[in-house]
Amino acid sequence: QWEHIHYQVPEDKQDADFPRLEENLDALIKRYPERAEPLVWKAIVLSTHAGAKGGLSALSMVRQARDLLEKAEKIDPDTLNGSIFTTLGSLYYRVPGWPLGYGDDKKAETFLKKALQIDPDGIDANYFYGDFLYRKGHYSEALSVLEKAMHAPSRPSRPLADEGRRKEIQAVIAKIKDKT
Fold it and tell me: Angle between the 159-179 and 123-135 helix axes, to the nearest 10 degrees?
């Protein structure tokens, strides 16, 4: 459902679709309180929803996402191929810093590198680390990491996500090439 909303629903319509998915995930969290996966997916949905929503109203969503990921880490830090650390890292570099948010580039880099330790060839871990490097102005290193992400093995159960992520990777690569 997340893949469909994020990659196929126009961004201006996503705000209406994400709450239903969040409710479904709340039910899964209640049903499986000892499992990390529903917590991670709820955090991913909240962070994506916050990105689509934008503005100050999204800050409570990204705080909740961070808290869910920290809870999931205590249950099973390696779940979903390092998605906890990929998502935490992306939150820390995308969320504004104090006094508005909790953004922190050092924490972001630590989490993103931890995700790469768990899933060194994964599309998501490499994409988010490459995007982080791009945003920090490390263009040649970012390009190398993003090229690795482009050639990451496909996930048979997630073709829509892989296709959408590759488009995101291509967009960042194009931005880098415009700057260099």
Answer: 20
What pLDDT, in 10s, does the model give residues 124-134? 999 999 999 99
- d(Cα 144, Cα 149) in Å, to the nearest integer? 9
Query: Residue 34: is it exposed, middle or buried by C-beta count within 10 angstroms (0-12/13-18/19+)?
Result: exposed
- pTM beyond 0.85: the answer is yes
Measured over the CA atoms of residue 20, residue 24, residue 30 and residue 33, the dihedral's sign is: negative
At 60, give phi and psi (nearest 5°): -65, -30
Question: With contact defined as beta carbons under 8 Å apart, do 145 and 129 qualify?
Answer: yes
